[in-house]
Amino acid sequence: MQFDLHDLRLVALVADIGSLSGAATRMHRSLAAVSARIQNLEQRAGVGVTPRARR
Prior knowledge:
mainly alpha, globular
């Protein structure tokens, strides 16, 4: 299982900021792109990285 540096930075930023949308803004990416990347990472790792909550 390999993770690239972008994935790891993204996870760290989500943890620091506390939201996917905040991390997306900071990384100059769309929320959909960040969410897809996190979901891919979670599937490869076999664990949830971020809690999911629907509003």
